[in-house]
Amino acid sequence: MDNAINKAAPEVRLRAFRAIDEPETCALFIEGHTHVLTNIGVTKVSYSKNEWVNNPGAFVMVVESLDGKRVFGGARVHVSGGSEPLPIETATCAIDSNIYNLVWKYAQYGTGELCGLWNSREIAGYGVGSIFLIRAAVAIAYQIGLQSLFALCAPYTVKPVEAVGMELETSIGNKGTFYYPKLDLIATTMLLKDVPILSKAHQEDKDAILRVRESWNTIRVEELRGKKITIHYEMRIPNLDKWDLKKIIANAEKNMMMPHDSNKDWDFI
Question: Which domain holds residue 92?
C-alpha cells in the first residue's frame, strides 16, 4: 500500500496507544518530531528526551499512513506519577520551583500533560497538529481517567488549547509565561481543569471531543478552511486493563517527597 499522502484526497489514521506497548512506532514518532524541532532551530534533543518510551504513564497518539509505515504527526499525554516527572516540571523548575506544588495539587486526583505535539510539512494545513490531535489528546485524557491536563505551549498553540477549555495558569513564571527553550521563544503554561466536563471549551471543539469519546474507533471526514481529510480514528487504547491510575497517583505522591532533577531536556507543544 502506498504510504504517501494523497493531496487530492488525504486519508490517515489517528491512533492512540501506551508508549511501552509499541517501541517501533515510538521510534518513528521520535524521528519525525526531531526533524521538526531541528527545522525550527531547536537542537537540544538528546537521549534523555526519549525516556518516555519506557514510561508506563506515557500515552502516544500518531497520525500515520493506513499501512502504519509512515508517521506524519503526533502528540503525547504523560500522566503525573509515571517513571519521570512531567515535561512541564523539568522544563520550568529552574525558573520557578512552584511548578512541583502546582502539579501535585492536581496530581492527587489524576493529572497529566499534553506534550510533544508535532506534524510534518507533508500534512500541514489540514488541522492535524493544530486541532485534531489536541482534541484527541483531551479525549484520551478522559479515557485514562484524568481530571485535569497541563500544556506548555508555544505561541501558535495557545489559541487551539484555549478552544478545548484550557486556561492560562498565572501562578508560574511571569504570569504564566517565560522565555523557553530559547530567548526568542515564549512558553505559556496552560491548564484544563475539568477534563470530564470541558466547561470552558468552545462548543464546536467540545462537540468534536464528545464525538470521539462516544465512538473511539470510527472514520470521519474532517474539514478546515475548505480542506478535507479523512481520518480513521482508532482511539480506544489497547491494554487499558493493565492501567491503574490509583497506583500512578500513589507514585506521584512518592515522587513529590524525593529530590528533583532539573537537568533534563525540554518538551513543549
Answer: 11-256
Given a cut of 60, whether residue 260 has pLDDT beyond it is no
Q: Does some domain include residue 45?
A: yes
Q: Which three cell numbers stand for residue 128?
A: 492535524
The answer for residues whose C-beta is within 8 angstroms of residue 181's C-beta and 6 or more apart is 42, 44, 91, 187, 266, 268
Residue 34 domain-assigned (yes or no): yes
pTM, to two decimals: 0.90
Query: Is 100 domain-assigned?
Result: yes
Strand partners, 219: 232
Q: How confident is the model at residue 48 (pLDDT cuts 50, 70, 90)?
A: very low
Task: Find the range with the poorest average confidence among 118-122, 136-140, 156-160, 211-215.
Answer: 118-122
Domain count of the fold of the chain: 1
**Which CATH number belongs to the domain containing residue 180 in this structure?**
3.40.630.30
User: What does the pLDDT read at residue 263?
Assistant: 45
| 3-state DSSP of the chain | CCCCCCCCCCEEEEEEEEHHHCHHHHHHHHHHHHHHHHHCCCCCCCHHHHHHHHCCCEEEEEEECCCCCCEEEEEEEEECCCCCCCHHHHHHCCCCCHHHHHHHHHHCCCEEEEEEEEECHHHCCCCHHHHHHHHHHHHHHHHCCCCEEEEEECHHHHHHHHHCCCEECCCCCECCEEECCCCCCEEEEEEECCCCCCCCCCHHHHHHHHHHHHCCEEEEEEEECCEEEEEEEECCCCCHHHCCHHHHHHHHHHHHCCCCCCCCCCCCC
Task: For residues 143-171, give the mean pLDDT.
Answer: 94
Report the 3 state secondary structure along 47-63.
HHHHHHHHCCCEEEEEE
Q: Is residue 29 part of a domain?
A: yes
